Amino acid sequence: MIRIEHVSKSFPGVVALDDISFQIDSGTVHGLVGENGAGKSTLIKIISGIYSDYEGDIFIDDQRLQINSVHEAQKKGIATIFQELTVVRELTVAENIFLGREPVGFAGALDRAEMERKSQQVLNELNASFSPRDKVGDLSVANQQLVEISKALVLNTRILIMDEPTSSLTEREIKNLFSVINMLKAKGITILYVSHKLEEIFKICDAITVLRDGKHIQTNSKSATNPPDVIRMMVGRSLNMMYPPRTAQKGELLLSVKNLTRVGEFQNIDFEVHAGEIVGFAGLIGSGRTELAKALFGAACPDKGEIRICNQKKKLFCHPREAISQGLVYLSEDRKQEGLILLLSVRENISLPIVKKISQNLFVKRKEEQNIVDS
Ligand SMILES: Nc1ncnc2c1ncn2[C@@H]1O[C@H](COP(=O)(O)OP(=O)(O)O)[C@@H](O)[C@H]1O
Ligand SMILES: [Mg+2]
């Protein structure tokens, strides 16, 4: 059992957590919900050892938790799967699972066979379809998440914290994750499940805690509450309609695509997009949604088809530069890998698509960059 008693934590100018107390029963899935800024991440960072400067106490099986690092938390059986996964893409599955604790065999040599054997055991338990020798960077996000869960399992984790674990999973992957969570629960692992998706919370959790503006609003068993109640507690007032009808007006035809094909990825795709319209592409993973988006943006050359922008026929883009010059923008699925250069500043990232325009003799004109970004 985890008892959180009078926990408070402030950042300069913000009270992120204000005298929080509730408890989490062992072997249950406990949902932690709240709007953006409610304090969910701060609370799990405290439990997982990232923040050690807080007021109040946390007890695990009546022992006061005193930890100063994620590593110490792991030693106490607490593991966290953050929204941004922390796997090392260049390493294999087995290397990731045993990272920092590689079993050593004879004369201190790395016992790779043992590592792979143990990894395979855990992967079997999770019904995973990949191998300990696969490179993690080649796996889907869902499978990378399974690698993180495997890591928690070989660490003998008793408390697993998951921060928005379904945010980049497909429906089928979510179903699979839920059966994994039920399996972990059956092993007696306690799960703290952070999400703002109430449908999921009500499907998978046994009890639900609501935070709002850093305050504890309520902890209830699932059967004692319901989604409208939880929404009311999250936002502090009652909402009559979760999805009010939209009244947007469809404007002129901006983009029309005919027979767009990239062999082996998608074929003969037709669609139109009007001004002020949101067009969704649904499909299972592997159905070609991302590939289609990339081809539209010129990140991969389409083989045939026709693209019209504002009713003008365009040649098929073969470089993002061409798409950008026609006013197309692409936000990638995997922002950390494809969308951003994490070593650069926010300003440098924002100005990157126009870096040529603001450069002279190989140097970026910083003043100009600043003016554009600040505007
Ligand atoms: N490192 C930080 N520095 C300053 N303020 C922070 C920091 N982390 C969180 N906060 C603030 O604390 C409050 C709670 O944030 P957070 O725990 O991230 O909420 P949630 O995860 O529920 O969205 C917010 O007002 C947020 O702006
Ligand atoms: Mg958060």
Total domains, how many?
Answer: 2
**Shape from CA axes?**
globular
Query: What gap, in angstroms, lies between the N and C termini?
Result: 51 Å
Q: Helicity range of the residues?
A: 25-40%
| Order of helical and strand elements | EEEHEEHEHHHEHEHEEHEEHEEHHHEEH
- For this structure, what is the CATH homologous superfamily of the largest domain? P-loop containing nucleotide triphosphate hydrolases
* Class per helix and strand makeup: alpha/beta
CATH topology of the largest domain: Rossmann fold
Counting DSSP H or I runs of 4 or more residues, the number of helices is: 13
- Total count of strands: 16
The largest beta-sheet arranges its strands as 6-7-8-3-9-10
Oligomer: single chain
Flag low-confidence runs. Answer: none
Mean pLDDT across residues: 90
CATH class label of the largest domain = Alpha Beta
CATH architecture heading of the largest domain: 3-Layer(aba) Sandwich
- Rounded to an integer in angstroms, the radius of gyration calculated over CA atoms is 24 Å
Identify every distinct bound molecule in the structure, by name, code or SMILES.
Answer: adenosine-5'-diphosphate, magnesium ion
Largest sheet: 6 strands, mixed
**What percent of residues are in strands?**
15-25%
